[in-house]
Design goal:
Layout (H helix, E strand, L loop, with lengths): L3 H34 L5 H30 L1
Length: about 70
């Protein structure tokens, strides 16, 4: 079992990380479009974007687990 006081105290922080990561994904998408329009290679930028999507997915899964644990208490 996880530490519920820790989880409830930090749920807001996790939500902040979700918002930050979504913002960074938006910015990265913008940079990819700029690179594409300028005729530059976007392989590394797209790989970074995919990594950020995986990070966001992991953060969301962790948040869901915390919420599940909190509701189970």
């Amino acid at each position: 079992m996880t530490n519920v006081p820790f989880e409830s105290d930090n749920l807001t922080l996790i939500d902040h990380y979700v918002v930050q990561t979504r913002q960074r994904l938006t910015e990265q998408g913008y940079h990819i479009r700029q690179l594409t329009e300028a005729g530059h290679d976007t392989v590394h930028a797209e790989e970074t974007f995919q990594g950020m999507e995986k990070t966001l997915s992991s953060i969301r899964a962790f948040r869901e687990k915390i919420v599940f644990d909190l509701l189970g208490q």
